[in-house]
Amino acid sequence: MLNDDRFDDLLREAANDYNRPPETPSRVMWSRISAQRAWRGDPRPRRRAVPVAWAATMAASLLVGIALGRHSAPTLDVRALASSGAPATQEQDGSLQAGRSVTGRVDEGRGGTPQYALATREYVRGAETLLVRVTAQEQPPMPDAVVAQARDLLLTTRLLLDSPIGDDPARALLLEDLELVLMQVSQLQAGNEADRSLVTEAIIQNGLIERLRNAGADHPSLVQS
Amino acid sequence: MPPERPTMTAPQTLPGMGERELIARVLERDPLAEREFYDLHVDRVYRLAYRLAGDDELAQEFTQDTFIRAFERLDQFRGDAVLATWLHAITVSVALNGLRKVRRQRERETDLDDSLALPEAAMHARLALKYRLARAIDALPDQYRTAFLMHYMEGYSHSEIGTVLAVATGTSKSLVSRACTKLRAALADTSGGFLC
Question: How far is B1 from chain A (nearest CA, A)?
C-alpha cells in the first residue's frame, strides 16, 4: 500500500502529466466561433442544416489555407513591394500599416515606401468594394469576377496576417474576419443564393464594411494600435 | 496533506477597461470587445476543457461551445460571481455533457487500448503506476473527477470549484478528498516499494 507522502508525490506528478493541455489554438477556434455565431444568427431554420455543413467545410479550408499560406510564396504586389527591401510604412491616415517589413524583418526607424502605403490602401478599398457588391441585393447571381477577386484578396489577407501587421490584435481581428468572409465568397457557386445570403449576413453582423471604411479613412482605431 | 496547487493568475482586462465595461461593450456587440473577452479567457477555458476531455479536438469543440453560449447568455450574467468563474461553469457543463455523449465510443476505444497495452511488467514501474493512476482518474465519477482536476491540476480554490459546480465550498473539499480516497483504493494492490 502506498503511504501518504508517496501517494501525494504521485498525485503531483500526475497533475503534471494527466491530460496536459497543448498550446491553446486560439486563432483557429476564434475563426470557428465567429463563423458559427454568424450561422446561428440566421433566423431561417430550414437553412440551418446547410450552413452547418458549409461552415465545417469553410473551417477545414481555412486551416488548409493557413497551412499553405505559411509555406507558399504568393506573388502579390504587396509582397513584391516588401520583399524588394521596402519597409512597411507608418501612415498618417490610419490605414493598414506596419512598423516592420511585410516579410517579417524588423525595419523600425526607417521610413515606409509610398508603394506599400498605396498597396495597403488598394487592398482595403478592394475589399470594401467587394463586400458592397456581395451584399448588394439587386445584382444576383454573383458574377465570376467577384469570386475571382475574393480569391486574390484572400491571398493578400493571408500575407498581411502573416506579416507583423498580424501581430496587432485589432488589425488581426479585422483581417481574420475578412479572411473568413473572403474565403466564403471565393467558394460561392453561381446561383446559390442561400449561401450568398448567409455570407451577406456574416458581413453585416461583423460590421465589416463599416470597419473597412474606418480603416481606410481617418478612423484608425480599428486597425491602428 | 494536499499537493501544492500550481500558481494561477486571474485574467486581467486591458488597462483602463474594467470587467463591467467590457461586458457592456460585448453586450453592445462591439466586435473588438468580443475578441478581447475571448482573448482574456480562452486559455483557461481551453485548459480546463482539455483536462476534462484529454483530447484536442473535443477540447476545441467544448471551448467553442462555451464561448458561443457565453456570448448568447452574457446578458444573464448577474455579476454575483467572477466572470471567469461563470465562464468556467459553462465550460464544465458543456464538457461533461459532451463527454457523456461520446462516452460509449470512448469506452470502446478504451477496451481497444487495453488490448494493445504493454504488459505492466514490461514497462518502467513508475510509468506503469502513473498509467494506472491516469486510468483511475478517468474512471472517477464526473463530479469527483472535475473537482479533482480543477483543484490538483488547474489550481482552482475550493471556493471557485464550489461556485462552478454549484456546491458548497465544503462539498468541494469533500469531493476532492473522496476522489483521492478512490484513487488510493484503485491503487491499493500497489506495494509501497513499487514507486521506487
Answer: 8
